[in-house]
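Table S5 (text form). Sequence records supplied for joint modeling of the two-component complex.
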Amino acid sequence: MTSLKSLNGKAGPAIGVAMATRALAGLIGLAMAWFLSGAIAAVVFDGADIQAVQLSLALIAGLALLRALAAFASDRSAFRASAAVRGYLFASLLDQAARLGPVRLSGTPTGEIATLFLEAVAGVEPYWRRWMPALAQVSLLPLVILLVAFPLDWLTGLVLFATLPLLPLFMILAGRAAESASQRQWATLARLGGHLLDAIRALPDLKLLGAAGRSTGEVAAAAEAYRKSTMGVLRLAFLSALVLEFFATVSIALVAVLVGFRLMWGTFDFRTGFFLLLLAPEFYAPLRQLGLQRHAKMEAEAAAERLFAFLDRSGETASTAAAAAPNLSRIGLTFEEVTVRHEDGRLALDGVSFSVAAGEQLALVGESGSGKSTVLALLCGFLQPTGGRILVNGQPLDGLDPTLWRKALTVVAQKPHLFDWTLADNVAMAEGNDADAVRLALAAARAEEIVRRLPEGLASRLGEAASGVSGGEAQRLALARAFHRRSPLVLADEPTAHLDADTERDIAEAMARLAAGRTMITVAHRLETVQRADQVLVLERGRIVEGGRPAELLTRAGAFARLMASGAVLASDRRAAR
Amino acid sequence: MKMLLRLLLLARPHWGWMVLSVLVSTAATLANIGLMATSGWFITAMGLAGVAGVTMNYFTPAALIRALAIVRTGGRYLDRLASHETTLRLLATLRVRIFAGLVPLVPFQDRHWRSADLAGRISSDVDRLELVFLRLIMPVMVALLTMIVVVAGLAWVSGALALVALGSLLLLGLALPALTARADAAASADVAMTTAALRNRLVDDLDGLAPLLLNDAWPRERARLVCGYADLLDAEGRQARSQAVGLSAMGLATDLSLVAMLMVGVPLVRSNLLAGPDLTLAVLALLSAFEAFASMPDAFASLRGALASARRLFDLLDRPPSLMEPAEPLPVPERFDLTFETVSLVYPGSARPALDGLMLEIGQGAFVAITGESGAGKSSLAQLLVRFCDPSGGRIRLGGLDLRDLASEGLRRVVVAVPQASYLLSSTVRANLCLARPEASEAELLAAAGQAEFGSVLARLPLGLDTEIGVAGAHLSGGEARRLAIARALLADPKVLVLDEPLEGLDGETARRLLTSLAASRKGRTTIVITHQLAGAEVFDRVITLADGRLLPTD
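The corresponding structure-token record, covering 1133 residues in total, follows.
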């Protein structure tokens, strides 16, 4: 998908209806001009009274009603067309977000993604609501007016026809310059808007640095510079409108004069002359309208560009083959030379190989950025290896149905997300859950107290960003979620500091209970966790630099011992030890 | 109305431009009306002369047609230029006035270093007000002037026709747009509410995308979001419908007022009270006058939003400054030891004090860490030191003087804080550093970067100091952004440097290097490092632990 046009199919027949009715409204206008000129000719030249022109007036009123209805139908259909496209785009964006997954999306702030989904999608609307109907009028009305004018009076037809090819020519010449100029202008306008927002956001920092006064001057300078550059561009850009204006005006004046003199010489019929005078401005009006809507189109295109950029990002690769449903009641894992290179070229994992037997506890340690979370992300299916492979019970992971595989997984995140749902729904991650199972899970995670504290117990809503719950409580609820899930493989990212000692101990104990009888991979931040593991892997810059039983590693005085001494990785233990 | 007046007062330096724009635009509109009306009169009169077999003076009307054609063509071009020039001038003035008005109000909220949401709202309110002249004031003024001239002109031809014109222009220019805008108001409130609800849900689900995907809850949430979007489209559809009704009604009323004009005019012609050419003139004048009213629905629809934006901004600007400055500030002291004397701080609306009778002394040149769990009062302490808030009880002394007796500008020249999440300008590294000291030399910039352990990052950046760091520093990692902010603070050469969580996002090795470098380069500067992680604790002279807003006895 590269352009808005490609989405026309999604707009359905509504866009056709919108264009047809818009053109129809224009045609009705021509008919009204015919009857209007007839009525005035009858009154002024034939001395007709009001009764004589009653029929004409009634026809004009009837046509007016018809024109209003056609315009209304066109507006409605255009909206429907744009709504269909927007609905389609919104759903596509949701699917793309799921395909990209949380890890690939983590570089973009959520607010920005939400803005893309809501505002950029709404931003494509003018293309269907304004541009396409305007296009319908411009492609039909001038042509019809020419076809009507020529048989009536070849001279007027010639005047209009002569300006017709000149118009697009001039419009293209002036328009092309204006278009590239105004595209640049949009960019600077966006930057200028951004400049003010930037300055306001930075205000507290500016004040802390005593730079707020200076920045006022900068805001003024930026706006002034913008005015100068914009006016320079606009002087040119408005020339295309001037050209159109010039031809429209000259034609109207010319038609009036040509018709007028022949009327005086008695060689022309007044009604035809007046009708032609009414048609002349209508000949140029659609072009003018199209010029006005060009901005709408450009804005829509800019919005679409942002959407397509998001939709074109490459995400999860579809699983290659659906192998026979494997037995996932117990899980052993093997990494064979697994490499992950991000799109920007960074190497997150570099030929990592290890295995975990079913029921074994593996602890991953290393400084931040060493590749620990990448290992978890691979197992969640949020990233795919760019080299090597991962085997689950001997079968390649990329051959498994992701939904099936994720059912076998429990993930305890370092900063768990609680939804703006009820507490019970947050634990069960579903609605209509079994209250007993939820209570059991809460008990296992030592989280019953939270239920007691909250006014509505299990049915309490946790609110935006779980405002009613402290960090430690959020951890306990996340553990309850994990207990509720009962899957054979647990992936955990231990919380770092921030928690009080009691909470930390409770959580560690709960984690240990969670691990019982399951395969578990933990990104460890606590000494205790490391000591309890069956196997420890030390990661450094995407490679495994050391691995083995924790007791062995401690005595070896290698990377593991160095890490323990630095205290950076196992910060909370140092504090606990103080 | 008061809002609009205040807005106009704010725009006083550009009143001349505003009047000019309105006049030019009105002239162009009237020229167009005149062109059509004169042309209609001309051909009718010529036709009548032809029928009667006489000649008439066609030089005057023909010259008039030529003149009006020129005025219309040039006028529309000048109209566009003048109105945009005016808008851009207004934009510059408005931005500066509002920005300058915001400065004394910072910090906007008492509890946080910043509110991103507030900044976004101010910015979009300003954006909207910038268009008030172009979209609202100018079209209304032009329409009003046009109406007066056209009605007066027609009155000269025929009083009855002038009344018809007045009636229909009032209906089209005022009544219908006002009615449409009222219907629109309810619909747009509905749209805003639906959007907000959908946005909250969307943000919640995107933030929780991982648990949703892992727990097979995504399909359900996806269906809900799609449903929510359909609701939004429905609400927008209702709004679009009321707008479409308004527009179609305008069109219909335009056409019907022509019929009305004929109904009144035809008997007048018949009874020789009105000349034939004058009827044509009146019909065409009215027909082309409607053009000036076409933008009225948009103007009326934008009125409510513009007023709401103006009200929000003026309410904000009318707030008292966030801090009381001393009437006669004392000069900044010569020594910089800090004393907290039973300092308490209770945030409005909070039951628990953030600081509770804190007693603390920090000598000049000390290099201290302040630790404690989140909520222990660490960040409050930093905010108090730069007077982003004042104690609810007790006092803080710098070199023996109460902070409240110093001008806050002067205080912040010697005490500089780097907040937890510093905001970096969406510009170059150099622009960010120079905020602290615009006249700093290249060597000074590099030295500060080096001291903040930003040197290695700088070496990696393709254009060094002139590398663009993306929107709000998005191209930098969290740890890199933090070090850039520290380098910026160092350039200000403070006597007391307060760093709120400077080590977050740094690996242990870098954190230790940063602390060592800060300690080594201090030259008498007091440094207070607020941190929850104690890597490199050996660098500090002293580690102060806070718990529940009080000092925890050292172990």
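Note: Chain A touches chain B through 141 residues (CB under 8 Å).
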